[in-house]
């Protein structure tokens, strides 16, 4: 036990001070603060005046008029319709060229008596939001144009109201009921944090083991301290390092959220600290710890069978694939947290850290399901820890080309491990 | 109760026998030489002693006890491929290795300073390994293997790649450790080091101990075949004496090769009747010659 802590201290001391660790932490912290400030930054830009769109007058004067009125009535509009009476398209093209207009609309008759075809002319195509706003406006105008005066004003108002579908959940006993949208954001943030720091620390562990092997200090280490103590000392050291990094990231997020200029944009997104469900955060933390140890023991085992750093990225590929799968299953299922795929994979230890987190954050599992997932992980950590320690013990003495599974088994038998 | 005792140790890799029924004992304050060509089983033997791999048969005892956890405190090991963390400071890693072997940080640090001073490289304390010359890296590796004051020291090719001055420095240190009671298992290709340092030795060939015993004993088993003769004037008729197989003239005498030791007296007699004899020596075989005879032409050492 004493030796484990010696290894932990050494790992912390030597890794914390490396340039690569400091630089990546700073860069990631910068990216994260950029992300948190994004709503504010976007609000800075979107406060700009709305796009000016010219309108070439044609035969459809009534439609043109209602279009102008439609955008005039709205308080905050995406468009400002500028009528250009008696102007030709050539003149308008010049205006667009000069930057006075973003573009202009023409109404083209296709069939007599039918609603005209709307054509937008501009330097750039319309954005999704802009196109939707225009389509909405014209749909309304078209309705009005078609029904003319056959409906009352109330009926008109009713017609323009969009239909809304509300869903209400029927909750069974023991299931958590309403989910607040903030939990989903929290889950996303935790999954991304887990994925990033897990990838980094696992790779660091594997690289560290391979380096010790290729620099041949391994033989000295392994005669001084048991491989198990050595492996877990390194894993715990890296774990503390990873926790430290996550603490830095979380602090960056919280400090940024608390900055005064961020209050307004966040309020418009309906975000409030009191809305965070701390049981989800706590569950996420437990899953993070378990997931970390599972991936770390495997990485140490992989690092121990490779002799040269150049071969490492190839050898660690299966583990990278697993953690990517865990990440993507969760991210792509954010809107369907109760699907069969998520349910099944939340009991597969490699995927539990992300998918179970998604379920407790956005889905409706019973808490016993969470604990069973945790228990399965714990059992697999013990199993893979034991297996990895055996591989580690064998692998560190094998030099040369990357050994196959058969060769490892043979070596295990030869070394009596 | 010997500090280290191997009894009929066998190690097999698949169907290849790496070490075949090897027995040896290392006393307190003794340097034991392990000789052999490449692939003879030296490193496998050392790895078994270190507990890195387990023997398939036989037993290894340390002060009468089998391998146990506590041994890491009294074992010191310098592997043939000296390993160090290239990017970590000398002080940091040597102290770490000593700590792993159960020494306190403070004591390890003061020991490291003492040894750096002894080897005339105190300025390396705060340097990274990759900044040091190869010779200095080796010195640090050697220090790392002895800094925790081991009782049983295992040196695999300790002096390879060092310049003569540093070889002397390390040899003196090894002798000093021996005189303080450290038992040392020492492997090398260099016969003159064994002749100078070791009391007992084993010559391994393909896992078998082809020769074993004290240096003195081994030499007495091999006939003395060389005679060095320095004389005041020329000596005639040496090659006609029966039992003399070869005569070479040197600038002040002769080197003779004989097939029978008893012929030596005849040669001395012949020489003395003709001129004055300044030196007459019946030379012991060198370990090199014994090694080559024992291992034969198959050696590539």
TrEMBL record, chain A:
<feature type="transmembrane region" description="Helical">
    <location>
        <begin position="21"/>
        <end position="42"/>
    </location>
</feature>
<dbReference type="InterPro" id="IPR051449">
    <property type="entry name" value="ABC-2_transporter_component"/>
</dbReference>
<dbReference type="GO" id="GO:0005886">
    <property type="term" value="C:plasma membrane"/>
</dbReference>
<feature type="transmembrane region" description="Helical">
    <location>
        <begin position="278"/>
        <end position="303"/>
    </location>
</feature>
<keyword id="KW-1133">Transmembrane helix</keyword>
<keyword id="KW-1003">Cell membrane</keyword>
<feature type="domain" description="ABC-2 type transporter transmembrane">
    <location>
        <begin position="19"/>
        <end position="389"/>
    </location>
</feature>
<dbReference type="InterPro" id="IPR013525">
    <property type="entry name" value="ABC2_TM"/>
</dbReference>
<feature type="transmembrane region" description="Helical">
    <location>
        <begin position="315"/>
        <end position="334"/>
    </location>
</feature>
<protein>
    <submittedName>
        <fullName>ABC-2 type transporter</fullName>
    </submittedName>
</protein>
<dbReference type="GO" id="GO:0140359">
    <property type="term" value="F:ABC-type transporter activity"/>
</dbReference>
<keyword id="KW-0472">Membrane</keyword>
<feature type="transmembrane region" description="Helical">
    <location>
        <begin position="182"/>
        <end position="206"/>
    </location>
</feature>
<dbReference type="Pfam" id="PF12698">
    <property type="entry name" value="ABC2_membrane_3"/>
</dbReference>
<feature type="transmembrane region" description="Helical">
    <location>
        <begin position="235"/>
        <end position="258"/>
    </location>
</feature>
<feature type="transmembrane region" description="Helical">
    <location>
        <begin position="370"/>
        <end position="392"/>
    </location>
</feature>
<keyword id="KW-0812">Transmembrane</keyword>
UniProtKB/TrEMBL annotation, chain B:
<keyword id="KW-0067">ATP-binding</keyword>
<dbReference type="InterPro" id="IPR027417">
    <property type="entry name" value="P-loop_NTPase"/>
</dbReference>
<dbReference type="InterPro" id="IPR025302">
    <property type="entry name" value="DrrA1/2-like_C"/>
</dbReference>
<dbReference type="Pfam" id="PF13732">
    <property type="entry name" value="DrrA1-3_C"/>
</dbReference>
<dbReference type="GO" id="GO:0005524">
    <property type="term" value="F:ATP binding"/>
</dbReference>
<dbReference type="Pfam" id="PF00005">
    <property type="entry name" value="ABC_tran"/>
</dbReference>
<dbReference type="GO" id="GO:0016887">
    <property type="term" value="F:ATP hydrolysis activity"/>
</dbReference>
<dbReference type="InterPro" id="IPR003593">
    <property type="entry name" value="AAA+_ATPase"/>
</dbReference>
<feature type="domain" description="ABC transporter">
    <location>
        <begin position="4"/>
        <end position="231"/>
    </location>
</feature>
<dbReference type="InterPro" id="IPR050763">
    <property type="entry name" value="ABC_transporter_ATP-binding"/>
</dbReference>
<keyword id="KW-0813">Transport</keyword>
<keyword id="KW-0547">Nucleotide-binding</keyword>
<protein>
    <submittedName>
        <fullName>ABC transporter, ATP-binding protein</fullName>
    </submittedName>
</protein>
<dbReference type="InterPro" id="IPR017871">
    <property type="entry name" value="ABC_transporter-like_CS"/>
</dbReference>
<comment type="similarity">
    <text>Belongs to the ABC transporter superfamily.</text>
</comment>
<dbReference type="InterPro" id="IPR003439">
    <property type="entry name" value="ABC_transporter-like_ATP-bd"/>
</dbReference>
């Amino acid at each position: 036990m004493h030796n484990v802590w010696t290894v932990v201290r050494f790992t912390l001391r030597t890794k914390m001070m490396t340039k690569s660790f400091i630089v990546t932490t700073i860069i990631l912290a910068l990216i994260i603060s950029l992300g948190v400030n994004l709503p504010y930054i976007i609000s800075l830009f979107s406060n700009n005046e709305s796009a000016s769109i010219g309108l070439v007058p044609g035969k459809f004067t009534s439609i043109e008029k209602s279009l102008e009125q439609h955008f005039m009535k709205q308080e905050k509009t995406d468009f400002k319709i500028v009528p250009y009476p008696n102007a030709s398209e050539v003149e308008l093209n010049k205006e667009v060229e000069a930057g006075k207009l973003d573009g202009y609309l023409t109404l083209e008759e296709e069939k007599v008596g039918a609603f005209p075809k709307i054509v937008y002319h501009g330097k750039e195509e319309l954005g999704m939001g802009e196109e939707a706003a225009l389509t909405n406006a014209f749909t309304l105008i078209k309705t009005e144009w078609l029904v003319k005066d056959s409906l009352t004003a109330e009926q008109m108002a009713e017609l323009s109201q969009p239909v809304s579908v509300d869903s209400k959940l029927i909750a069974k006993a023991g299931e958590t009921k309403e989910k607040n949208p903030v939990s989903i954001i929290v889950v996303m943030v935790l999954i991304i944090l887990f994925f990033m720091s897990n990838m980094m620390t696992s790779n660091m562990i594997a690289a560290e083991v391979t380096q010790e092997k290729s620099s041949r200090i391994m033989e000295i280490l392994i005669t001084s301290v048991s491989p198990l103590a050595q492996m877990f000392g390194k894993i715990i050291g890296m774990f503390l390092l990873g926790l430290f990094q996550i603490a830095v990231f979380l602090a960056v997020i919280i400090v940024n959220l608390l900055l005064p200029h961020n209050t307004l944009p966040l309020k418009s997104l309906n975000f409030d600290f009191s809305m965070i469900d701390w049981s989800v955060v706590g569950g996420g933390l437990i899953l993070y710890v378990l997931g970390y140890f599972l991936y770390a023991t495997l990485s140490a085992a992989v690092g121990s069978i490779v002799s040269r750093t150049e071969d490492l990225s190839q050898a660690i590929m299966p583990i990278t694939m697993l953690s990517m799968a865990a990440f993507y299953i969760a991210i792509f299922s954010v809107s369907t947290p109760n699907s069969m795929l998520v349910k099944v994979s939340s009991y597969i230890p490699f995927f539990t850290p992300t998918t179970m987190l998604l379920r407790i954050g956005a889905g409706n599992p019973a808490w016993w399901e969470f604990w069973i997932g945790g228990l399965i992980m714990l059992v697999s950590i013990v199993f893979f820890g034991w297996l990895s320690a055996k591989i580690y013990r064998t692998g560190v003495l094998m030099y040369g080309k990357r050994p196959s599974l058969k060769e490892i088994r043979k070596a295990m038998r030869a070394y009596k491990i | 109760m010997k500090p280290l005792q191997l009894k009929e140790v066998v190690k097999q890799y698949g169907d290849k026998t790496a070490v075949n029924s090897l027995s040896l004992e290392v006393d307190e304050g003794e340097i034991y030489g392990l000789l052999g060509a490449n692939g003879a089983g030296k490193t496998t033997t050392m790895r078994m002693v270190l507990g890195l791999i387990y023997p398939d048969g036989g037993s290894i005892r340390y002060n009468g006890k089998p391998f146990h956890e506590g041994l890491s405190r009294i074992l010191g090991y310098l592997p043939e491929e000296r390993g160090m963390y290239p990017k970590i400071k000398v002080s940091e890693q040597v102290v770490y290795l000593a700590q792993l072997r159960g020494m306190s940080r403070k004591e390890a640090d003061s020991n490291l300073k003492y040894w750096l001073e002894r080897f005339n490289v105190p300025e390396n304390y705060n340097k990274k390994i990759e900044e040091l010359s190869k010779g200095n890296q080796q010195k640090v590796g050697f220090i790392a293997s002895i800094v925790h004051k081991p009782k049983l020291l295992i040196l695999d090719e300790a002096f390879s790649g060092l310049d003569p001055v540093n070889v002397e420095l390390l040899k003196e240190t090894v002798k000093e450790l021996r005189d303080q009671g450290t038992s040392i298992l020492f492997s090398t290709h260099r016969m003159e080091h064994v002749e100078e340092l070791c009391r007992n030795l084993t010559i391994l060939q393909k896992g078998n101990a082809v020769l074993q015993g004290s240096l003195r004993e081994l030499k007495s088993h091999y006939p003395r075949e060389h005679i060095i003769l320095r004389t005041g004037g020329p000596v005639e008729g040496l090659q006609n004496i029966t039992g003399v197989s070869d005569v070479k003239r040197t600038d002040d005498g002769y080197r003779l090769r004989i097939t029978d030791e008893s012929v030596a007296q005849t040669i001395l007699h012949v020489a003395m009747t003709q001129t004055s004899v300044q030196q007459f020596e019946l030379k012991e075989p060198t370990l090199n010659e014994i090694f080559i005879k024992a291992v034969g032409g198959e050696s590539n050492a």
